[in-house]
Amino acid sequence: MSSSVKHLVVIIDLNPYYWSDKIASSTTLNFKQYLNIIIQFCNAYIAFDINHRLIIIGCSNNETHFLYPDPTNESIIIPTVTKTNMFEQLFVVDRVVENNLKQFIEDLSPMNTSSGSMITMALTQALCYINRLIRETLAGEKNSFRILIIQTTNDTSKQYMNFMNAVFTSEKINVPIDGCILNNDSSLLQQACDLTSGIYLRVPDPNGLLQYLLWLYLTDKEVRKMLALPTKVAVDYRPACFCHHKLIDTGYVCSVCLSIYCDNASTCSTCRSAFDITNTSNGANDSSKRQAR
Amino acid sequence: MDDNDDQYRWESGYERTWEVIQEDESGSIRATVNAINQKNRRKELAQLPNVRLGMMRHLYVVLDLSDAMKDQDLRPNRLFCSIELLKEFIFLYFDSNPISQIGIIITRKKRVEKISELAGNPRSHVALLEQLKYQECEGEASIQNALDMGLQTLKHMPKYSSREMLFVLGCLTTCDPGNILQTIKTCKENEIRCSVISLSAEVRIFRKLCIDTKGLFHVITDSTHFQELLQIHSRPLPALDKFESSLVRMGFPKYRTYTTSNANISSTTTSSTKHEKASMCMCHLEQRGGTNGFSIGGYFCPTCESKYCELPTECSVCHLTLVSAPHLARSYHFLFPIEQFIEASMDKSESNKCFGCQHIFDEQKHKNIFQCTNCKNFFCFECDLFIHGTIFTCPGCIRYGQLK
């Protein structure tokens, strides 16, 4: 029996927008059920293996909060023998998450809820947290890390660069990102899962959320090889041009700042460098012309 | 010394380097040493703002394979150590310069040999480097021949790219057929930046080469230092004055499986319907006899429909550079660097936790904490390094970007 500790960081989207009246009609799941499902999943994860460790980060429209572990709150809760004879650790987790959630939801600001959640902020904080755990790892120990993002809101293009930076970091330190989305497909999350070799899933029926979570996200890489996973959809990596925000097949890239344009421009709007249009062509042809002259 | 200001250590003023180090109550100097290390690492990561960088690079790595590389001052010997570190360097290079190219040249027995042409695929270069491990190191190196070979290719590279040569040299001599000063002059005229990492000692001609062509000259102290130096070279250097800017045409192919009917372009890769035809990809075409590269899926060049199994690459048919959006996004952090955090004292902080890793600040352990000037959040030293060195995004500032 190896003693490698497996850490899972769960990032939950708690943006109230998805649960508001505007969208609620399309789903039969309510907020309370959603939270219940996530707590059930977390319990299942902890109970699954003694070496499993859990970190839960909640994020809303403008705030993130580490719901668990919370060393200051944890000491207050004394595991008492409950009516149901619950496993002590699970009892503590449930209470801590419950308390923190309550506080977090009370502090929510109703501003700008439609503009997406602070997934990126939670992700960077999760990476910082993992980085510290990696540094504290003793020689010889082999710990693994994994991030699961449960998202309910749409992507925000403003977070693109920050999000991608976080994804590249995750790729570098070998932390797979799993994505589970309840709403429309998210291309950012899709790319993140593809780049870090995690699993992406758009939950077709929110009522089955718990089943989906237990099926795909309870297990790590090793066990997944034996599972029947959802078919991988080819990820669209085409960029949007900076000028019209359209997806393009071929485009022109500024050699100074790598901004992408769909047509020839005389100056770059990002770095303000002026281009010599006569010189514009692709690299190899350019050099052959120069040789010929 | 002729034209450079920094003299040799023994020629410069008498420095009392030990006075910086102070003992604490218990007589330990660990605290000061740690503080110096911290300062250095922070300094290393500080990026100069508003400097135009040469984002597209064409680089030749010249590896010395002369007698001197057999020395065992680096373990197991200079050649093995260099190759191991260069392999790491190649991955780092493509990580920071995703659309750049690299080529490898070796020099021994007064001759040079091109191991790989300028190309954008790290794996093939690393495989070739691996083979070099078992080659004999003999004779003398020739810098002039290496320069000439690099010049031949690099001078035809487009003006908007940064043309560079990086020498990893163990030798203390160079055996050249002609006047090397003339070749250096030609390099200078062609704006080829030559940098040298010397494994043994400073040699005047190496230094002159670097100064004249505005490259960097370093002598390693040990293998960790060697690694750090290579890391410096993996990041894009500030562009030279005569640098042109231009728009480069690029293709962004989508991964798909080849189908007979064009309507079914975005079919999934795993399901095998009747329409799918297996085909050979252009990158593995040259390696005959293998089954590598024979598959149904791939990236198809948007102009000529040739198939490639990996990006980034250059289409061998229509010479279009093929990349994907994340490749470009990888280097955006150089363009939008995040500001250095400032050092702050513990009592200023409102919260007692690091904003990044949620570690509770401890009076003894965390002598210095750092504050982001934009979002005013506090971070511990580890997070500061991680944010500036790896993530390139301040967790607190994301909120402000969102609300704008």
TrEMBL record, chain A:
Q: Name one GO molecular function term.
A: zinc ion binding
Keywords from the named record: DNA damage, DNA repair, Metal-binding, Nucleus, Transcription, Transcription regulation, Zinc, Zinc-finger
Q: Which GO terms are recorded in the biological process aspect for this UniProt protein? A: nucleotide-excision repair; regulation of DNA-templated transcription
Pfam families tied to this protein: Tfb4
Name its cellular compartments: Nucleus
Q: Does the keyword Cell membrane apply?
A: no
Listed GO CC annotations: transcription factor TFIIH core complex; transcription factor TFIIH holo complex
Similarity field: Belongs to the TFB4 family.
Protein's job: Component of the general transcription and DNA repair factor IIH (TFIIH) core complex, which is involved in general and transcription-coupled nucleotide excision repair (NER) of damaged DNA and, when complexed to CAK, in RNA transcription by RNA polymerase II. In NER, TFIIH acts by opening DNA around the lesion to allow the excision of the damaged oligonucleotide and its replacement by a new DNA fragment. In transcription, TFIIH has an essential role in transcription initiation.
Q: How does it assemble?
A: Part of a TFIID-containing RNA polymerase II pre-initiation complex that is composed of TBP and at least GTF2A1, GTF2A2, GTF2E1, GTF2E2, GTF2F1, GTF2H2, GTF2H3, GTF2H4, GTF2H5, GTF2B, TCEA1, ERCC2, ERCC3, TAF1, TAF2, TAF3, TAF4, TAF5, TAF6, TAF7, TAF8, TAF9, TAF10, TAF11, TAF12 and TAF13. Component of the 7-subunit TFIIH core complex composed of XPB/ERCC3, XPD/ERCC2, GTF2H1, GTF2H2, GTF2H3, GTF2H4 and GTF2H5, which is active in NER.
| Name assigned to this protein | General transcription factor IIH subunit 3
| Species of origin | Adineta steineri
From TrEMBL, chain B:
Q: Which InterPro entries match?
A: C1-like_sf (IPR046349), Ssl1-like (IPR007198), TFIIH_C1-like_dom (IPR004595), TFIIH_SSL1/p44 (IPR012170), VWF_A (IPR002035), vWFA_dom_sf (IPR036465), Znf_RING/FYVE/PHD (IPR013083)
Note the CDD domains from the entry.
Answer: vWA_transcription_factor_IIH_type
Residue ranges occupied by any VWFA domain in the UniProt entry: 56-234
Subcellular location, record wording: Nucleus
Every copy of the TFIIH C1-like domain together lies at 353-399
User: Record's SMART domains?
Assistant: C1_4, VWA
Residue ranges of the C4-type zinc fingers?
Answer: 301-318
Q: Name one GO cellular component term.
A: transcription factor TFIIH holo complex
Which GO-annotated molecular functions does the record name? zinc ion binding
State where it is primarily located: nucleus
The record's keywords, sorted A to Z, are:
DNA damage, DNA repair, Metal-binding, Nucleus, Transcription, Transcription regulation, Zinc, Zinc-finger
Is rRNA processing a UniProt keyword of this protein?
Answer: no
Q: Which domain of life is it from?
A: Eukaryota
An example Gene Ontology biological process: nucleotide-excision repair
Any Pfam family: C1_4
Q: Which family does it belong to?
A: Belongs to the GTF2H2 family.
Its name, as the record gives it, is General transcription factor IIH subunit
